[in-house]
């Protein structure tokens, strides 16, 4: 399982994690993993794989085998960033890939939400409870509200 980490406010890329499945041959697998996210992006290490055509070679920061992958530039996807696609994410969001049905994978800025980041999130405009120069951060609409475990 590949997990990308972005800062919520700036959308700055912080690195990627790799979670290996112990039994990849099973049709369904339940995993439990403690994710240790670095405080800064200092652990973000690039590599020199020249196969990344329209992207950057990145090393997973939690993998002792030093496994790498190609992090594609916007508008490119595929293992070596060689497949061009049209991004349909809203302006100001990040387009980080494409699904098999040609739908863009979007990372939304703090005031937008939805699959293409087209919907405005006005909750912080009405929130007056932040004190001492605090910052209102909207609730993640993709999180589960009922804890069902």
TrEMBL record:
Domain EGF-like: start-end pairs: 43-82
Source organism, top-level taxon: Eukaryota
Keywords of the record: Disulfide bond, EGF-like domain
Gene3D superfamilies per the UniProt record, alphabetical: Laminin (2.10.25.10)
UniProt-listed Pfam families: EGF
SS bond partners: 47-57, 72-81
InterPro entries given in the database record: EGF
Full protein name: EGF-like domain-containing protein
Source species: Adineta steineri
């Amino acid at each position: 399982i590949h997990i990308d980490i972005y800062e919520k406010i700036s959308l700055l890329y912080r690195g990627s994690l790799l979670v290996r499945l112990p039994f990849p041959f099973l049709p369904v697998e339940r995993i439990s993993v403690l994710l240790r996210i670095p405080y800064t992006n200092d652990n973000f290490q690039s590599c020199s794989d020249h196969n990344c055509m329209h992207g950057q070679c990145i090393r997973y920061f939690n993998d002792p085998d030093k496994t790498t992958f190609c992090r594609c530039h916007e508008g490119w996807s595929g293992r070596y960033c060689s497949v061009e696609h049209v991004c349909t994410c809203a302006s100001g969001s990040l387009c980080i890939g494409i699904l098999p049905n040609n739908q863009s994978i979007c990372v939304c800025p703090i005031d937008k939400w939805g699959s293409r980041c087209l919907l405005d999130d006005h909750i912080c405009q009405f929130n007056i409870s932040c004190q001492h120069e605090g910052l209102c951060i909207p609730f993640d609409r993709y999180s589960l509200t009922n804890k069902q475990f």
